[in-house]
Amino acid sequence: MTIARNAGRSRGPKLSFEFFPPRSEEAKQQLGETIDTLAAYRPDFVSVTYGAGGSTRGPTLATISRILSDTALPAAAHLTCVGATKAEVRAVVDEFRAAGVRHFVALRGDPAGGIGAAYEPTPGGYANAAELVAGLKAIADFEISVSAYPEKHPESHDVAADIDMLKRKVDAGATRALTQFFFDNDLYARYRDRVRAAGIEIPIVPGILPVHNLGQVQKFAGLCGASVPQWLADRLEPLADRAEERAAVAVELAARQVDGLIALGVDEFHFYTMNRSALVASVLDRVGLRPEQDVERARAEGAAA
Ligand code: FAD
Predict the structure, then answer these.
(1) Using an 8 Å Cβ cutoff, are 17 and 269 in contact?
(2) Is 18 a catalytic residue?
(3) Which one of 49, 141, 161, 299 is most buried, by most CB atoms within 10 A?
(4) What's the 94 CA to ligand 1 centre distance in angstroms?
(5) For atom 41 of ligand 1, which residue has the closest CA?
């Protein structure tokens, strides 16, 4: 990784990029290259996921430490509380804090039996993400982001219960919600309206997933309660054996989604990168969010003034 200075964008929507800890030397190398490429887009922060039950504690910490030492990007650590006592969570937080982490994406995590299994709070642990947010805030004045589900979390009885949990997380100190991925902007718009009607004012940052692998996305969407519209499958399925055309269509669809969200007033985006830069970078180029495009736009505006 090379040093990326000037984190954060001076103009235009804010950006963040999500990575997961690499599982091999080759994957580590690829992630380094991905971060180098995406750093040029000046994200406000990048985040690294954390395996439920602490399964990636070491790799998450190693990845975060590397980003913090090798780049100037602010890095947020995802943290789940499932399967851990409060003391165990505290030990992880202390470790991350010592490495320089000041921002957590605080999550409950999926049940030990996997998505869809019944969730059992751990005795002596935090029962849900709202309790975790309060616990983190009691340790230090961390910046805290949390999850949000435009199509509701699969365990929630209804959207109202989901929004009630979001409110509890905000009341406990969360200042940003990152959404589960979705492909239909109307779902986001309706969800945001209901969130605002509930008196929640924090940014509801859309999670954008450019589709690398339709089958994988459909499988994961089925598990986490997100929907993959038929029109999206109809565009990508016929291109299963034509990687280049498939990537071009995936970029076009994600760029159109981002443009649509900007038209809805969204000014902050979280990208699920899958540790790869090509699609995300192309989407950002397409919608005019490359930093040089900011400069070009500023020049054009200056000339027009
Ligand atoms: P919460 O906010 O506590 O709850 C989510 C919803 O479920 C709430 O609406 C609540 O009403 C409902 N609910 C919770 N518990 C119950 C219950 N017992 N009965 C009925 N309803 C209930 N997972 C990882 O393992 N690692 C990660 O790094 C990670 N990163 C993520 C990042 C983002 C942006 C998102 C959106 C999700 C991420 N997840 C991650 C997935 C997340 O851990 C799961 O969706 C998990 O099932 C819920 O965690 P949460 O923090 O959203 O839960």
Answers:
(1) no
(2) yes
(3) 49
(4) 23
(5) 109
